[in-house]
Amino acid sequence: MADLALPDLSTPRSQVLLAIADDALISGHRASHWTGVAPSLEEDLAFSTIAQAGINHADLWYQLVLDGTVDDVSAGVDALGLGREPEAYRHAIVCERPPRDFAYTLARHWVLDRFEAIRLASLAASTDPEVAALSVKLLHEHRYHLEHAQLWFDRLVRGGDEAADRLRDGFTQVLPEALGLFEPVEDEDQAVADGLLPVGHARLRERWLESAAPLLEQAGLADLVPAVDAAVPDEAAFGRRGCHTDDFVVDVWPEMTRLYREHPGARW
Amino acid sequence: MSATSTSDPVREEEFLAALDAGHRVEPFEWMPDTYRTLNIKFIEMHANSEIMGALPEREWIARAPTLKRKRSLAAKVQDEVGHAHLIYRVAESLGRPRRAMYEDLIAGTGRFHNVFHYPTYTWGDVACIGFLVDGAAIVTQRALLDTSYAPYARVMKRVVAEESLHYRHGEDIMLALAAGTDEQFEMLQEAVNRWWEPIMHFFGTAVPAEEDPMIRWGVKGRSNEASRQEWLNTYVPKMWDMGIDTPDPKLAYDPDTGWWDYTEPDWDRLAQIVKGEPTEATASRLYWRQLLHRHHAWVHDIVLGPEPATAA
Amino acid sequence: MATFEVFGRRKWDAPMEHVGILHAPDAEAALVLARETHFRHDEGVEYAVCPSEHFHTQDPTLLERQVDISYRLQSGYSGFRDKREAARQAADARGRSDLRERPVPRRHGGEV
Ligand SMILES: [Fe+2]
Ligand SMILES: [Fe+2]
Question: Contact, C77 vs B72, CB < 8 A?
Answer without folding.
Answer: no
